[in-house]
Amino acid sequence: MTAYKILYIEDNPDNMRLVERALKAKGYILHGAIDGLSGLEMLESVMPTCILLDINLPDIDGYEVARRIRKHRNSEVRHIPIIAITANTLKGDAEKALDAGCDVYMSKPINIRELWARVEAFMPDDDFLK
């Protein structure tokens, strides 16, 4: 299996460690960013297959990060799938994330099996048919 790269933009070190362990167990390579601006800076150098995005970040929120990704000058970056992972679970929060450009909305606490399924759904099919 190809080791696909995933960018996780998350300011909570405990969540970062949990997701890193879970995804490494499935063979993924995780690149972490602790705030929105550093995550945006990493995009072109990492070119991840998928982005995991916390909504509550210390600088710009995840909604703004998603909007900037969807307006990025590089069309490849604009089409990277974004999975919002957030503690925001009020009515309308999922719609707000999807409206900002996220493809999927997941609530915290993180369910590892759901995370694996969501990430795998965005991976190229060829390696998962073997």
Structural commentary:
With 130 residues, the protein is of the alpha/beta class. It has one domain (5-122): Response regulator (Rossmann fold, 3-Layer(aba) Sandwich). It has 6 helices and 5 strands. Strands 2-1-3-4-5 form a 5-stranded parallel β-sheet, sandwiched between helices. Helix 1 links the parallel strand 1 (5-9) and strand 2. Helix 2 (36-46) runs parallel beside helix 3 (62-70). The longest helix has 13 residues, at 13-25. The chain starts with a strand and ends in a 9-residue tail after the last helix. The mean pLDDT is 92.
How is the topology of this model organized?
Layout: E1 5-9, H1 13-25, E2 29-33, H2 36-46, E3 50-53, H3 62-70, H4 75-78, E4 82-86, H5 93-100, E5 104-107, H6 112-121
Helix pairs in contact: 2-3
Q: Mind summarizing the main beta sheet?
A: 5 strands, parallel
Q: Structural class of the secondary structure composition?
A: alpha/beta
Backbone shape? globular
> Roughly what fraction of the amino acids lie in strands?
15-25%
Q: What is the CATH superfamily classification?
A: Response regulator
**Quaternary state of the chains:** single chain
* Spatial strand arrangement across the major sheet: 2-1-3-4-5
Q: Give the mean pLDDT.
A: 92
Could you name the ranges where pLDDT drops below 50 across 5 or more consecutive residues? none
CATH class value: Alpha Beta
Q: Give me the number of helical elements.
A: 6
What gyration radius follows from the Cα positions, in whole Å? 14 Å
Order of helices and strands: EHEHEHHEHEH
Helix share bin = 40-55%
What's the CATH architecture name? 3-Layer(aba) Sandwich
